[in-house]
Design goal:
Number of helices: 6
Structural class: alpha/beta
Oligomer: single chain
Strand content: 15-25%
Helix content: 25-40%
């Protein structure tokens, strides 16, 4: 699979590197408004089934806040690996969390065959790119191949009352269908949570579980 997203990925690496330099370990370094909303998204991802002894891949790990959350909430002592495209974020994460393993990795250029119980992804698909759907689909193919039990990710939803011009909003039904037809027949779509009290649910999370049967296309009667 060729990497047709290199220019966008390089731009994002630079963008997030600057945010880490400016904000350090704060939620703003990962482009979140505050720690509360950042952690709420992560909590929903982990509800796919992560336990204290799971082996997880945190894709787009930033400074390692997912590991902090898991340690604090469930006493996590499993194996944690974080990938990010920002060297600045990875350097910060390695210093803050020597108990984790952190790698600078673009999986489209440099894929890994290492497997994990769960692969988790928060916020990676939110920034506007030249081909957001193509990027989401290419990355998801790669990550599902590394997930022994499940893959969970979130995206901004088109069921909203406001669009930020710099962000990408996906149709949850398109994302669900892509996963159902290409990754696994066992897919859960969650659009039932809000990251901020009083706000409408403006994002969604998908859980894709490994299955013994192959995914198949939608069967539309003729």
């Amino acid at each position: 699979m060729s990497n047709n997203f290199k220019d966008d990925i390089d731009a994002l690496a630079k963008h997030y590197g600057e945010l880490v330099k400016q904000h350090g370990d704060a939620a703003e370094s990962a482009q979140y408004a505050d720690r509360e909303t950042q952690e709420r998204r992560m909590e929903v991802l982990c509800e796919i089934g992560v336990t204290k002894d799971s082996k997880i891949l945190d894709f787009g790990c930033g400074t390692g806040q997912m590991l902090s959350l898991l340690q604090r909430t469930i006493g996590f002592d499993g194996e944690y690996v974080g990938y990010d495209i920002s060297p600045e974020a990875i350097e910060f994460a390695r210093t803050a969390h020597p108990e984790g393993r952190f790698e600078v990795r673009d999986i489209l250029d440099n894929p890994s065959e290492e497997t994990f119980d769960y692969v988790l992804l928060s916020g990676v698909f939110n920034n506007l790119m030249a081909d957001n759907r193509g990027f989401f689909e290419a990355v998801s193919h790669r990550l599902m191949a590394q997930a022994k039990t499940g893959y969970a990710f979130n995206m901004l939803s088109r069921f909203v009352d406001y669009f930020d011009e710099g962000l990408y909003y996906e149709d949850p039904l398109h994302a669900f269908r892509f996963c159902k037809e290409n990754l696994s027949p066992l897919v859960t779509l969650r659009h039932d949570y809000s990251v901020r009290p009083g706000a409408i649910p403006f994002e969604f999370t998908l859980y894709i579980h490994r299955a013994d049967t192959e995914p198949r296309p939608l069967n539309i009667p003729g």
